Structure formats: structure tokens, C-alpha cells
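Onboarding guide, step 5: your first structure request.
Type a short instruction followed by the sequence, for example:

Predict the 3D structure of this protein.
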Amino acid sequence: MQNDFNEISKYWNERYSQKVKEYRKFEVSADFIRFASLFAPGNSYFYIVNLHNFNLEYVSATAKNFIAKDPEKITMQDLLQTVIPEEHQSISLKSRVNSHFYTSFVAKEEVLHYKNMFTYRLKDREGEIRTMLYQAFPLSVLENGTPEHVFCIHSDVSHLKVSSTNAVSFVHMNGGKSYYNVDISKGEFIAEATEDPGLDLAELLTEREKQIVKRFSRGLNAEQIAAEFNLSPHTIKTHRKNILRKSDCTNTTELVAKCLTNGIISPGLN
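The system replies with C-alpha cells like these:
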């Protein structure tokens, strides 16, 4: 386990820390904390990391719901240690794809416009396994194009019928090109490795289809959804078939995971 963490730390140092020559603290205001809280609904915690040395400059009080430690004393090592062993290789690959995207693919002018997202599993302070949605927003970027400070949110999505997947998404927050469900197997960002670089489910799915997906995410079956919408179970099953075809998914679990990282389903209760 320690070797896995050392490998991740070594890579982060090579890709980020060596490029962030000077330590500059991010000024965290009360207004920023209030604003940040709006992005972390439900059972979540957030922090700001300085990529010069991966020091956590601010950790929300809600982190104590996941880690048995004073939030002010939590380190990046503590966060990594919550990840279950089966996820270590995946986390390492996701980290590599993320860093390659921000430092080698996207233009410096665009870095602050992208957030990255993926799911993973952790073991919390009570020993319970939770599925988490990770979202990261660069807050500042250096002249060489390297992100300096990053705002990270970890949200518990265990209530959704979703599993951890071997993919990451890069979402442009100002209407630019997004990259959904990027394959991580190569350990670097490859635009062609997306299932469909232009696949935006928010545009492909109708409002009714989005409503149905949200109910599938809560564990409702076709009969229950049909009763809620006063439709026949056959109609709901037809919708499900069409949704799976549009999203290029093979089952509902995969569909919910993809909709989560496309922003159709929020981390909170839908």
C-alpha cells in the first residue's frame, strides 16, 4: 500500500511540484468558503491543495465525517489512505491522465475553465465502504501553464446505483469542448480515447428521459417509475432501451455513472 502512495507522490512531484517553484498561499476568504459550500451538497467535504508541495491549505469541517482526524491536521497522505486497495492502480492512472490533460494537452488560457471528475471507493472512519464522486477545479495557473491551487470536492454518491469506473471526465464550464468518460488505461490523456468526444448526454436526452434516469439512480424499477408517471411499465422499458442506445451503455449502472459525470445527476438526492 505504501509503495502505491509513494509512486503517486513521486509522479505528482514530477508533473506539478517541480514546475511550481515558489510556494504561494491561496487566500481563503469567508466569502469563498460560503461559495464553495454551494458546490458540495449532501454528504461531502472539500479542500484547497497547493501543488507546490501538495499541502492542504483549507479542509472543510465535514471531512471529519470521513476521516478520524481534526480537519486542520488532515494531509494528502491521510486522504490517499482512505482509498481502498482495489482502487490504488485506478487512482494512479486517473491522476496521470488528469495531470497530462492540464499540463500537456489543454492550452494555458483554458486551464481554469475545466473541471475534472471521476468516481472511486474509500473506507471511512467507521470502516464503511463508500462510493465517492471527485471533482477538481483549478483556481490559479502559472505562466508555464501548470495549475497552482486546486479546489477539490469529494461527494458520497453511495445512495446512487453507481459503481467506480475506470474513466475520467473533463467538463468545460463555459460551453467549450468537454471530454466525457476518457479511458485511463494508457495513463495519459488521449482525446480519441473518449467513448465519444462530442457525446453530451444533457443534449441527447429528452427531459422525460433525464427524469427516468434520475429515478433509476434511486433504485426504482420500471414498474415503480411507471406508477409515478402514470405510464405503462412497457413504456418505461422502451425509454430505458432508447436511453441506453443514445448513451452507448450496456446496463443501468453504467448509465447512471455516465450521467453522474455528465452532470445530469447531482451528488445530492435527485
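Each response can be followed by summary notes, for example: The chain has a mean pLDDT of 87.
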